[in-house]
Description:
This protein is mainly beta.
Amino acid sequence: MKCIKILYFFSGLFLLPGLPRELSADPEALRDDIGIRKILQLQRGTIRIAKDPRDNALYTLTASGIISRVVMQSEDEPPGLTIARGVLDAATGARVWTRLESGGEMPADVPLDEILAAHQEKTNRFTDPTDGQLYVLAVDGSIVIPPRTVVAEIAEHGILFPAALFIATDGTFYLTLDYAKANATGQVPLHDSTEHGFADTQGFAIGPDGTFYIGFTRRRNGDRITGVAKGRLDADSGRRVWSTIALTEPIPPGSKNHPHPGIVIEPAGRFVFLSSGSRTDHGEVADRNGTLPGVREVPLTAVILRLPTDAEDIIIPADAEELKASGYLFAEGFRNAFDMAFAGNGDLFAADNGPDSDQPEAISWVREGHHFGFPWRMGGVDNPMRFPDYDPGTDNYILFTASGARDQGLFYNDPDYPPPPMAFTDPIVNLGPDADRFRDPETGAVKDASDLGMVIQTLTPHSSPLGLVFDVENRLSREFKGDGFVLRTGGDCCALINSFNDPDEDLLHMDLEKKGANYQARITRIVSGFKGPVDAEIIGDKIYVIEWSGDRGLWEISLPQDVRTAVEMHTDAVPEMAGLSHNYPNPFNPYTTIEYGVRGFARVELAIFDLLGQNIRTLVDADQAPGRYARRWDGLMDNGIRAASGVYICRLKVGAYEQARRLTLLK
Length: 667
């Protein structure tokens, strides 16, 4: 059983009987200039992590379709009391809500002392003095008349974590913010299968405009259907509107199925790339109990598809000629490209999960129209079973590893194995020094390629590479600048990698160099000791790693930054005046633009606060070079809900420097 058959992950079958399992990870930096910090323990089933490129907010996806926002503990002291005020409009009978800050301008009629007392007591039941009606602050943040009549939801009053309810003598409602809960580290669920409609989800990406994309699998009469859906944020309602971009026609099950898609968004946001994994381990016949005689792979398996993000309800054809004519087929020959990523130069790379035989795991530079070998060639090595004299009894690629495919008798002499359809493109070359063990096909011995002056393509067999990311913004120090990073989770699910004596469950650095029609890379381990690392995201100089196993940690890996001076970089870009400019327009509805300047390389935070000090939207949280910048705020809070009309504080922090300005949002 090969590890990254994610089908097994959420069924729990990846835990092998009799193998001791550590309950928690203890990652170790293998360099002195790398820092490690545990952020939180993740919700069970968390399989993906992605950032919103607009503000670098992190979001996670579970295999059952729950999308959550990652909230990290703020180190700032609460600046004051955040209050939502609800005044009844006699003409309409509706309550009009506004935000107030105890540290800002406060209307004279606000009973601040009484509100503070209710806040300190965490009062959640209050009787309206004007009519004697009891109101209760429910656990979901809504205000109700018992037992279940809702009179105000979070979407109306805007306090995501209410602490207390107070009702003044004139019947005005006041809610206060629970600052500790609002700023506590954790995952805040935002969307699930009841909204987007998919309960088997293992692909996740966020477009440049903040649109969410999920890759999903459905079952129909035993067949699988793979697809992509998107959730676009509606600016008027503050809610995500979900639609399906594309579905494949049904794909019949095989002998070794890889039904769960990885997805990635093209940097410009025009296309989503979808991997559709193989239905065999290495191209063996998988005839579905004789109903599909001689069938191995089918046109919709072992491929990467490219789909327009603005499309809806595409049906991707199963017929080979129709698929080619559709323009959706991008590349072929991938067993299970469960993770894909774009480098800073726009080149697309895919991490491919190799076969149960001891052939290398591949990371490939993916190009349109190329065939990357599977099942005829895997990891730069020809599949021995494709040759007429194949004898599994002498195949050293399978004799030393007790795999599921071997135990199921999937390696056999196969005189009908079809010939290669075209010339193949091999994976990138690993120059070492790490993750480059291989099985000698003549002797069966395990060898280290770089120790012998040899190379492999690309990683030690059964490494199961995941979490592929690139320093696309060139934020890292010279030796890491613009490079790639990838996780290996091989040993977490099964013991196939054990015979190679190659420690895995680690983070690798890939120092890539383009050589002619391919890349080569010096690959080095930089962090060890994860437990089932399954995905990663990069923000500035930090890589965020999520684990499937142990206590399911979210880890922050801090890498050395670029320390060149402002004179060396962008001398002419240093602004004459650093700091926060006035936003325009102001007042505004629905958008405003915020400009600011940075004089030297520094950590920059640009955030919107309500008048009670609650951080409602983070626009920038990154290391930035000297220059002038502009960010647009669309009036939405981090939770996707539209902020109420009123006055807000925009705060800029550049290193130790802080500046704030007021903004007014109109209805």
